[in-house]
């Protein structure tokens, strides 16, 4: 059935299913005010997604007397944070890639920080009165074509080599079937760190907690300009349409919008990710044996990621959306690309055929910030007190907690486990400049998709596509490599 689909049954469009649900739950609650007039604060945070909100909470937790103001262009959680697949896990699944790009010790440090983050998110999500659908049962990566089998082995081998075998346990076909039965699953690896959450309710709960902690929070307030103080001069000035914030420290937590900043542009490009949500089908999930709360992903480079919801729906995502030119996030294709939504739906039908007659309730997509080594970075602009964090590379729900802690440490000048992480200290590798980045990225994306589609059909990857798909590795890049 998956190959016979020529159009997605639901065209992708905002808002995400999550955000619509969270807003319906909040019906009648007015948004935070927008900023009018001038205010002074110790710290101004720009962006009300997970990064900005975790940063605000970390600052207030560490130094309650600090005056923290946060402005959000639209509504908190309306960006990537309220669109995500909301699969929550740190970096144990990334050990193999990280050990190559930043070394074994640094890879282990980042993975351990992810576990601290997981503990922090769990504590927040499960606090009394929070209805954010937190479910924690681990994460499974499955091979869904012979070409994907080798990647499973690399997970298991790296975990053993680094002395952490329990973080990646191999699963046979029968082992996977004990979690979820599908004819497409061949072998797998069980990663013990993994949870699912309601993407937008988590963001909205963070917003509520920030307000309760005393953060001055303004929605529908885009930053229109930033006058940066250099070398300890007058404070920074954040400009908005009808007001301004004078602040000693500024944290830029605007995610993909940072990809056009002069300092960041060499290291980050913008692709897009698409997801769909099905109608509820708990009886069909039970028939497939998917009764636990494990999240699952295949081993494609343009990964299919999937998880259940507490009302028996399945979210299926495909990280295969188009690239943007020069970090432009306004291109319609980043949120409305039917071909990417179709890939998510084909993935649903192929990987979970037990759901073949279950309807898609909603589909959506959004831009994601891909860094040259697929890891985020948290830094301070030299000679200023302006800090920023981005580069999550489609994996931000757990890492934005790390980001909040790292950015809080940078604001407070604290030399601690967060500010010493490679995510703050490493030199982030560069990407080719435009127009090579766009045209090269587009060609490699098409080639990788052609290879992965052929491999799923049991055919060899086309020779030309294989050659093009191999180019990033030849140039020493970590993105675009299979
Ligand atoms: C479809 C999709 C699926 C994903 N699935 C997963 C997943 O399953 N697991 C995972 O770990 N990660 C996933 N991700 C990635 C994850 O969602 C992001 O990495 C993470 O949410 C980034 O959080 P953020 O706060 O940095 O960005 P955002 O949530 O985008 O927040 C940035 C905010 O800044 C605001 N803003 C921008 N410009 C301005 C301005 N000038 N003034 C004021 N405010 C401004 C925006 O409105 C936005 O709300 C997914 C992403 C997408 C798009």
Helix coverage percent: 25-40%
CATH topology value of the largest domain: FAD/NAD(P)-binding domain
DSSP summary: helix tally: 15
Which stretches of 5+ consecutive residues score pLDDT under 50? none
Give the terminus-to-terminus CA distance: 27 Å
Coarse morphology: globular
User: Which architecture of the largest domain would the CATH scheme give at its second level?
Assistant: 3-Layer(bba) Sandwich
Name the CATH superfamily assignment of the largest domain.
Answer: FAD/NAD(P)-binding domain
Query: Major β-sheet, in short?
Result: 8 strands, mixed
Helix and strand composition category: alpha+beta
What ligands can be seen in this structure? flavin-adenine dinucleotide
Radius of gyration: 22 Å
Strand runs, count: 19
Annotate the secondary structure layout.
Layout: H1 17-25, E1 37-46, H2 50-62, E2 68-71, E3 87-88, H3 95-102, H4 104-125, E4 135-136, E5 139-143, H5 149-161, E6 169-171, H6 173-177, E7 187-191, E8 195-196, H7 199-212, E9 216-218, E10 223-227, E11 236-240, E12 243-252, E13 268-278, H8 282-287, E14 295-297, E15 304-308, E16 314-321, H9 333-336, H10 338-351, E17 360-371, E18 377-380, E19 386-390, H11 399-411, H12 422-425, H13 436-456, H14 463-469, H15 471-474
Parallel strand pairs: 1-2, 1-12, 2-9, 5-14, 12-19
Antiparallel strand pairs: 3-8, 4-8, 5-7, 6-7, 10-11, 11-12, 13-16, 13-17, 14-15, 15-16, 18-19
Helix pairs in contact: 1-7, 2-7, 2-11, 3-4, 13-14
């Amino acid at each position: 059935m998956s190959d016979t689909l020529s159009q997605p049954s639901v065209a992708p469009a905002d808002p995400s299913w999550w955000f619509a649900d969270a807003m319906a739950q909040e019906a009648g609650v007015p948004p935070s005010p927008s900023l009018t007039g001038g205010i002074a604060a110790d710290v101004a945070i720009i962006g009300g997604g997970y990064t900005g909100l975790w940063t605000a909470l970390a600052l207030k937790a560490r130094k309650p007397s600090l005056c923290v103001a946060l402005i959000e262009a639209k509504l908190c959680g309306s960006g990537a944070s309220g669109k995500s697949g909301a699969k929550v896990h740190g970096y144990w699944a990334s050990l193999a890639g990280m050990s190559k790009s930043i070394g074994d010790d640094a890879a282990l440090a980042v993975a351990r920080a992810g576990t601290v983050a997981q503990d922090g998110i769990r504590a927040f999500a499960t606090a009394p009165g929070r209805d954010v659908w937190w479910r924690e049962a681990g994460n499974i990566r499955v091979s869904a074509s012979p070409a994907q089998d080798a990647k499973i082995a690399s997970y298991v081998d790296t975990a053993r080599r680094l002395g952490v075998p329990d973080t990646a346990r191999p699963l046979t076909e029968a082992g996977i079937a004990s979690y979820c039965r599908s004819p497409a699953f061949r072998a797998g690896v069980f990663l013990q760190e993994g949870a699912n959450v309601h993407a937008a309710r988590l963001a909205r709960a963070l917003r509520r907690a920030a307000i309760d902690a005393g953060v001055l929070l303004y929605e529908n307030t885009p930053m229109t300009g930033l006058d940066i103080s250099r070398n300890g001069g007058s404070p920074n000035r954040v400009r908005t349409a009808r007001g301004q914030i004078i602040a000693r420290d500024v944290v830029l937590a605007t995610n993909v919008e940072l990809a056009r900043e002069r300092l960041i542009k060499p290291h980050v490009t913008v692709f897009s990710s698409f997801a769909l949500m099905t109608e509820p089908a708990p009886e069909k999930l039970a028939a497939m044996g998917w009764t636990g709360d494990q999240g699952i992903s295949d081993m494609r480079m343009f990964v299919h990621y999937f998880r259940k919801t507490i009302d028996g729906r399945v979210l299926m995502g495909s990280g295969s959306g188009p690239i943007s030119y020069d970090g432009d996030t306004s291109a319609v294709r980043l949120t409305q690309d039917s071909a990417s939504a179709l890939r998510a739906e084909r993935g649903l039908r192929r990987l979970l055929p037990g759901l073949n007659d279950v309807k898609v309730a909603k589909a959506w997509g959004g831009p994601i910030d891909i860094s040259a080594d697929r890891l985020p970075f948290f830094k301070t602009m030299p000679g200023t007190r302006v800090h920023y964090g981005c580069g999550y590379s489609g994996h931000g729900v757990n890492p934005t907690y790390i980001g909040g802690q790292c950015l809080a440490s940078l604001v407070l000048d604290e030399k601690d486990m967060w500010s010493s992480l490679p995510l703050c200290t490493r030199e982030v590798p560069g990407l080719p400049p435009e127009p090579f980045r766009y045209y090269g990225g587009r060609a490699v994306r098409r080639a990788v998709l052609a290879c992965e589609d052929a491999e799923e059909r049991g055919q060899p990857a086309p020779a030309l596509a294989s050659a093009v798909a191999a180019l990033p590795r030849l140039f020493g890049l970590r993105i675009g490599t299979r």
